[in-house]
Amino acid sequence: TSLFAAVEMAPRDPILGLNEAFNAEKNPAKVNLGVGVYFGDDGKIPLLAAVKAAEKARLEAQPPRGYQPIEGTPAYNGAVQNLMFGKDSELLAAGRAVTCQCLGGTGALKVGADYLKRLLPDASVYISDPSWENHRALFEGAGFPVKEYAYYDAATRGVNFAGMKAALAAMPAKSIVVLHACCHNPTGADLTVAQWKEVVAAIKERNLVAFIDMAYQGFADGIKEDAAALDLFAASGLQFFVSSSFSKSFSLYGERVGALTIVTDSKDESARVLSQVKRVIRTNYSNPPTHGGAVVAAVLSSPELRQMWEDELGGMRDRIRAMRTSLVANLKAEGAPNFDFINVQRGMFSYTGLTAAQVEKMRADYGIYAVGTGRICVAALNTKNIGYVAKAIAAVLK
Ligand code: PMP
């Protein structure tokens, strides 16, 4: 018999599976609100002008494609650190941060998880309830038991902060806590700065290890504002992990550009930690690809391209905000119940409170695709489809 005779079909990825179903949808008015991608008002994934300019220069220079260092280039890693902590950061000056270029935010989480498994083999990982659908599988895949901490409050469509604090207070020392720096996926419900202060204090008091997932820097309030949680962790003196993704902020999804940063206690620790993380990378994929990282480094290090990128990022942020406001107004005009919370939620996603049955009705009756949990991607709305979507939501709520 075949080696694979007994292999079972794995379940489809819930979100990528939704894309396949959407592509096969016959309704000409169809709208895909299931994906986690930013689209412009024209319904297309933008190629940023700053990225185009950096790519053009790179193409003209025709650099050779040798192997990169295992951890990526200093130009890229340094630029990532400055973006997260600011170029005048004391933490950076003290040599307390180790950064490695990784394959997107997912790759950064995976390298961090594999390294943590060697550092803390008996720890448990805690993710928010709910969280990005890959967090659990990723940390379980690295060998950790994965548990949840209270996060989303369906009644207020905000954060159940009392529940979150109680969960933190009950975690065993050295537990790993995965936190979303901003633009929480899937709910859109973020912590306030005052709440972050309490989280940092609880993590310090309980001797927990924070792993901050930063996939949307610049999508909520601004580059610096969205790093507020990182600033608090930096000031706390704690050691912690950060995964960064530039998939959204540079619209470079397929180039797989991200980074893992580990904050240690000293320059000397950083050198030893880096040597160990390099072993994890070397035995996984050896070293990262060249193009995406080189483009991001070029944009971030040229004052002109950087300004261009900040303006374009601001444009994406403003468009998402405008779609939130417009959706709320359109729903009101359709006579739907109060959706004001959509203006409070931040980033690409919104938990709408729609039930699985209502989401299914939107698909069947309108060809509008959303995740069964009621999550919609606000960045997939545009001036042409928003009226239709609001009508559909109002109709399935009747
Ligand atoms: N973390 C979160 C919270 C995300 O939403 C995503 C992707 N949408 C990622 C990590 C992964 O990012 P990437 O696509 O760069 O791997």
UniProtKB/TrEMBL annotation:
<dbReference type="GO" id="GO:0030170">
    <property type="term" value="F:pyridoxal phosphate binding"/>
</dbReference>
<keyword id="KW-0808">Transferase</keyword>
<keyword id="KW-0032">Aminotransferase</keyword>
<dbReference type="InterPro" id="IPR015424">
    <property type="entry name" value="PyrdxlP-dep_Trfase"/>
</dbReference>
<dbReference type="InterPro" id="IPR015421">
    <property type="entry name" value="PyrdxlP-dep_Trfase_major"/>
</dbReference>
<comment type="subunit">
    <text>Homodimer.</text>
</comment>
<comment type="similarity">
    <text>Belongs to the class-I pyridoxal-phosphate-dependent aminotransferase family.</text>
</comment>
<dbReference type="GO" id="GO:0005829">
    <property type="term" value="C:cytosol"/>
</dbReference>
<dbReference type="GO" id="GO:0033585">
    <property type="term" value="P:L-phenylalanine biosynthetic process from chorismate via phenylpyruvate"/>
</dbReference>
<dbReference type="InterPro" id="IPR004838">
    <property type="entry name" value="NHTrfase_class1_PyrdxlP-BS"/>
</dbReference>
<dbReference type="GO" id="GO:0004838">
    <property type="term" value="F:L-tyrosine-2-oxoglutarate transaminase activity"/>
</dbReference>
<dbReference type="InterPro" id="IPR004839">
    <property type="entry name" value="Aminotransferase_I/II_large"/>
</dbReference>
<feature type="domain" description="Aminotransferase class I/classII large">
    <location>
        <begin position="30"/>
        <end position="393"/>
    </location>
</feature>
<dbReference type="InterPro" id="IPR000796">
    <property type="entry name" value="Asp_trans"/>
</dbReference>
<dbReference type="GO" id="GO:0042802">
    <property type="term" value="F:identical protein binding"/>
</dbReference>
<dbReference type="Pfam" id="PF00155">
    <property type="entry name" value="Aminotran_1_2"/>
</dbReference>
<keyword id="KW-0663">Pyridoxal phosphate</keyword>
<protein>
    <recommendedName>
        <fullName>Aminotransferase</fullName>
        <ecNumber>2.6.1.-</ecNumber>
    </recommendedName>
</protein>
<dbReference type="InterPro" id="IPR015422">
    <property type="entry name" value="PyrdxlP-dep_Trfase_small"/>
</dbReference>
